[in-house]
Amino acid sequence: MKQREAQHLPEFCWVTHSLHVTYDIPSALEVLSVNQRHEYEKRYRAVEQTLTAGIDVSSTVNIQHLESLNDLVLHISGVVVREGIPDRLLDEADEVVVVDVTPETLEERLIEGKIYAPEKIDQALQNFFQRRNLIALRELALREVADNIEENNGTTVAEKRHCNIHERVMVCLSTYPNSIRLLRRGARIASYMNAKLYALFVDNLEQFLTKAESLHVETCEKLCREFGGKFLRVEGHDPLSKITEIAQRERITQIVVGETHRSRWELFIKGSVVQRLMRSLPDIDLHIIATQQPLT
Question: Of the candidates 109, 133, 152, which is a domain's last residue?
Answer without folding.
Answer: 152
